[in-house]
Every structure is written in structure tokens, then in C-alpha cells.
Amino acid sequence: MIHPSPDAPGREAKLGTADPMTVRRLADLLRTSMKDTFETLAALRGVLEAHGLTAPDLAVVAGEIVVGDLTVPDAERLAQALGAPPREAGADPVIELADWPQGKEVTARLDRALREATDRFIDLAFQPDCGRCGGKPVVSTGAVSVATARRLLAALEYGDRP
User: Fold this and answer.
1) Which H/E stretch holds residue 150?
2) Of all helices (H) and strands (E), which one includes residue 138?
């Protein structure tokens, strides 16, 4: 029997017609296989909050974890929590990071910090006028595997680097 894994999303199984007992067994199997994913999600939410970061879009999507949209100041704080050096003296205060050049700079800093912390690529995009966010500038993150989310979690909790 092949066990589904949240670390290898994308595999599909054709079920056809299934009796109630088979559906119950399948639901139990899915619940068991996704337990680690949702535990990782909850731990990541907790550690982000402990760092004073809000990630209202943090979710599981197709077996992967999505941090979602971060305000530009939160993206800067996350970069620093992951070990990025403080911004140079005289730079705009973190609250004023909504402008295009500063937003792109913060996105690049977060990209470097995430790569160092997780040893993986995490898709980031600076959105200067996010339609989902009331027109506010954000840094959007792509989905990551549960293993990569665990690396991010360890880096935020313990400062571990691969």
C-alpha cells in the first residue's frame, strides 16, 4: 500500500465508487498523513507570532505550506529574525518601507535570508499595490514543502542554519 505524503504532493489516485467503510479508512489515512503538516503549520504560526509577525494567510494548500502576504515591514522583520543584518544607519525606518525601491530591497533581503535559513528557494514577489490587501504593498510568498517549512521553523526557533 502506498501512503500519501505531504512532502511529495501531486500524486493522484483514482477511486471510482467507494463504500462507506472505504471512505472512512481513506479519511483516517488522510488525517494521519496530514497531521505533521498541520502541526508544522501551527508551530510556524506560533513562532511567527512570537517574533511579532502576522501572517493572516498562513495555510496548507495542496499539501504544502503557504505563508502568504506579508506587509513590507513584517517581511523586513522576518529577514532580520532569520539573521539578516539590520538595515544600514540612515535608511528609512521600517514603517516607511512601502515605496517601490525599499520594497524591492526588502524582498531581496528576505530572499537571501530564507535561502540561508532553509537552503531552499522560496518564491517571493513584491506587490506594490496588492488588490487582496486593500492596495497596500506586500511581499507575497509561494508554497513550500513541509520539509522546507520545518527548516524555516527551526531557523526561527533556534537560529539553526543548514
Assistant:
1) helix 146-158
2) strand 138-141
List the one residue out of 92, 73, 154 whose CA is nearest residue 120.
154
Nearby residues of 109 by Cβ (< 8 Å), 6 or more positions away: 76, 79, 84
| SS3 per residue for 37-82 | HHHHHHHHHHHHHHCCCCCCCCEEECCEEECCEEEHHHHHHHHHHC
User: pLDDT digit of tens for each residue in the chain (162 aa)?
Assistant: 445 555 555 566 677 888 899 889 988 888 888 899 999 999 999 999 999 998 889 999 988 999 999 988 899 999 999 999 887 766 655 555 556 788 889 999 999 999 999 988 889 999 887 767 667 888 999 999 999 999 999 999 987 544
Angstrom CA distances, 41 to 53, 55, 70, 103, 143, stand at 15, 11, 16, 26, 12
DSSP sequence for 11-26 = ------S--HHHHHHH
* Cα pseudo-dihedral 64, 45, 125, 8, rounded to 10: -10
Q: How is the chain split among helix, strand and coil, in percent rounded to 5?
A: 50, 10, 40
